[in-house]
Amino acid sequence: MTDGDGVEPFVRRYFEREGQPIEEEEPGVYRARLPESLRPAFGGAESIRIAFDPATAAAAGQVDLAAVGSFLLDRLVEEATRAGWHTVARVEAGPETAEQVVGRGLRPKNATLSIREPTTESVANLLFNFRVRFMTDERIDRFESILVDTRTGKERTPAASLFDERASLPEDIGFDWRGIAQAYRAACTALEDRLAPAAKAFREQAESLRKGEVDRIAAYFERSIQEVLDSKVGDGGSEVRALQLDRERRLAEAEEKHRFVGEAELCNVRTVLLDVTRADVTLSHRGAAKTIRVEFDAASREVPSLACEACGRTVAEPVLCFGGHVAGPECVHGCEFCDRVHCGRCGPSEGRIAACSTCRRGTCPDHLEVCALSGRPYCPDHVHACAICGRTVGPEYVARCESCEQRYCVVCVAPPSERCATCRGLVPAEAGDATIATLRRRDPALSKITKWKRGANPRYTVLLAKGLVWNVLVVVDAKGAVLVRKKMLGS
Questions:
Q1: pLDDT confidence band for 170 (50 / 70 / 90)
Q2: What does the pLDDT average to over 175-197?
Q3: Which among 85, 71, 88, 67 has a CA at the least distance from the CA of 14?
Q4: Cross-strand partners of 314
Q5: 274 close to 88: Cβ distance less than 8 angstroms
Q6: CA distance 463 to 443
Q7: Which of 68, 188, 305, 343 would staple 327 via disulfide (CB 3.0–4.6 Å)?
Q8: Is 331 helix (H, G, I), strand (E, B) or coil?
Q9: What is the rounded radius of gyration, in angstroms, for the C-alpha atoms of the chain?
Q10: Partners of 32 in the β-ladder
């Protein structure tokens, strides 16, 4: 549909209803007799000459153009609305609260909703009802309704309640008709967008059928002409010319049969006084909060779906990421160790979810550790904090001490003996060492040993009981639990 589609049928229908159908004076130029109510707008003229094609109007002179946006069409739409192609309806807010409507419509997956200062007002909307017809070798008729908000000029979703006659009001309650032409143009644009996919599919189907029929006709006449030329009776010239003329006629018929025609006619207009509720809705959780303005009307009682701030698509069940963005579930990445999520809009300062270099699980900044030696990220299950130097390192930089059998970073376990810095730094224990005294009380085999060496780090205490032949190495954790006890040859 173009801007002109539907204009000529509407204009013709208007003048026919006034009892004065337009008459063609010359190709493309028509004489239209104006009703009394329209004559002041045209300088008191009883009739005017009109054209639907801009080129014809420009060439003819003293001709009013009937096209979308023209002075003539705007006046006809206003007059048709006043003259009875128009009804008025009121749809009021129901018993359902704003909290109930918003809660049913938004349904966030990870946030709570709170509503502040909902307000309701009656807003004038215009409901344009169109009859649409698609024609090729078959015909499709459909009825389309476009509801336009007169404040914004944008389309609203019409609901069944808008067509309920019980909602009708008297027509003479005094409406401001300014802006109806603009609303009509917006309705035409919305109708075009709505019908475009169906029109395209219908046109493609017709084109496929046309091509098939044209190919069949061409093939048939090609064979027929060749048969005449191959015959030995006469030169066949007159028969060939007759076949060629018949072929052209049949091809023209096929073209006309499958030619796509789309028509749209404005049937009537209804002013709908629609209660519209607006509210500030806050989505919040422990990491972020976001306030958005929502609006819904009393006809549909539906809150428009929010748009994902990462991809732009509408979201049925939005997620509030910890960067304060609304996103779809498929556009966020969550931490495997808490409820934190981030989307593609989050910058480094807001904290993104990183994949563990070992298991690839998502890990947030609160749980992520970076290897001090490689710089790669790791989750809590695959990072090791060295008890000696405090470095956090990944699995490939962890080494086991051959003496105390504990795990440290590779820097703190030195070859060739593969002993940790704590075991290499054992010194004679002081008399009365509390840990040694506890071990001697618990273990009779150690009670008689008097020579001890000791080393410690923030996590482990390493004790070496020196015997004549055998030594006993004991590793105790910070709570005093024995982790390792083993005999070693003395040295």
A1: low
A2: 85
A3: 85
A4: 307
A5: no
A6: 14
A7: 343
A8: helix
A9: 43
A10: 48
Beta strands 47-51; 64-65: pairing state:
parallel
- Other beta carbons within 10 Å of 52: 19
**β pairing state of 332-334 and 341-343:** antiparallel
Reduced to 3 states, what is the DSSP secondary structure of residue 136? Answer: coil
Burial 67-89, CB ≥16 within 10 A → b, else e: bbebebbbbbbbbbbeeebbbbb
Long-range contacts of the stretch 452-456 (C-beta < 8 A, 24+): 452/428, 453/426, 453/427, 453/428, 453/429, 454/426, 454/427, 454/428, 454/429, 454/430, 455/422, 455/423, 455/425, 455/426, 455/427, 456/422
- Euclidean distance between CA atoms 291 and 279, whole angstroms: 10
* pLDDT tens digit sequence for 327-360: 999 999 999 999 999 998 887 777 788 899 999 9
Q: How far apart are CA 333 and CA 335, in angstroms?
A: 7
CB 30 within 8 A of CB 13: no
Nearest alpha carbon to residue 133 among 317, 261, 283:
261
Closest CA to 372 of 411, 334, 340, 323: 411
Contacts of 288 (CB under 8 A, 6+ apart): 320, 321, 322, 323, 324
Q: Give, as one character, the DSSP assignment of residue 41.
A: G
- In 3D space, the residue among 306, 266, 296, 392 whose CA is nearest the CA of residue 108 turns out to be 306
Buried-exposed string 291-305: b where 16+ CB fall within 10 A, e elsewhere = eeebebbbbbbebee
Label residue 23 exposed, middle or buried (CB < 10 Å: 0-12, 13-18, 19+).
Answer: exposed
Does the model's pTM come out above 0.90?
Answer: no
d(CA 338, CA 342): 12
According to DSSP, the β-strands at 326-327 and 332-334 are unpaired
The residue with tokens 């054992």 is 426
* 58 burial level (CB within 10 Å; 0-12, 13-18, 19+): exposed
